Amino acid sequence: MYEILPYSPDMDLRWDRFVMENSMNGTFLQTRKFLSYHPEGRWTDASFIVEKSGIIVAAFPGCSINGNFVSHQGSTFGGPVISRDFYSGNKILEIIKAADNHIAQNFKGIVLKPTSPIFSTVPTDLIDYALEHQGYIRRTELSCWTPIEQGSDPLENCSRECRHNFRLAEKQNLTYGEIPDKEMEKFYEFLVLSKARHNTKPVHTLAELRDLKQRFPEDILFRGVWKDNAYLSGMMIFRFSQAKAFHFQYLAPDDTMRETNATTALFVLAMREAEKAGCQKFSWGISTEEGGNYLNENLYRFKESFGALPCLNARYEK
Hints:
Elements: E1 3-6, H1 12-22, H2 32-35, E2 48-52, E3 55-60, E4 62-65, E5 68-71, E6 81-82, H3 89-106, E7 109-112, H4 125-133, E8 137-147, H5 160-170, E9 175-178, H6 184-196, H7 206-215, E10 220-227, E11 230-240, E12 245-253, H8 262-276, E13 281-283, E14 288-289, E15 294-295, H9 297-304, E16 309-317
Parallel strand pairs: 5-7, 12-13
Antiparallel strand pairs: 1-2, 2-3, 3-6, 4-5, 7-16, 8-13, 8-16, 9-10, 10-11, 11-12, 14-15
Helix pairs in contact: 3-4, 5-8
């Protein structure tokens, strides 16, 4: 028999150990250490774990929104996060059914956003099957990633135009490295401007970005390029060590300096850093809008110029 235990703060250590050490698709984004950076009261937490004989077999980070259980709004991915030892056909069906019964008794509906396959340590097909078998509707958004081969320069996977632009940037002796604390405000200023051009705002405040940088110095990276100590462009990167992947999260360029090709240089140099760190993937995130209904073709074409291949982010609704 499976037991459902609603989340409480005294679970934090067990929860995080399960996600990072015992699951097949957990990332630091689903740890309580990450989720707790949000101020108290921003979300109505509805997370729960599934146990069997006192062992955590699954975690469902989530919020209660208008009477629905929704994968935690404080993270790119929610759940289910599944135990490596319980990742088999019959056990997955049992776990999903137990969780589904709990949600049906307490909520009007449900939206789940499992970890993308490229950030899982094994194929996620069993989770997809179990959710569809339990009556969930699958909706997808188009993402992409560039394969990183150890000992090979990622620039070689880029298009001819991309390589040309990178060579032009190289001639200007740009400097690549970590964005220091004293320049985080400048990074955020350009991030806000970049988002405003697309009629959006950053999900995080500057204070939250600084908090995350301190909490996860090995997993959340801020990288930039400079010319003669002048900031040109910067990015925020998530490093998923279990999946051997870098994920590009935010871009903050000084658009008055486009002629330097700094952003092209930034991406190529970040991919080179991923290769040196032993990573096998560089993730670019989604290129779709309105929940996947609209493809931003120019954005997707730009990512393809860096050797990106397609993959899907799925959400399941019921």
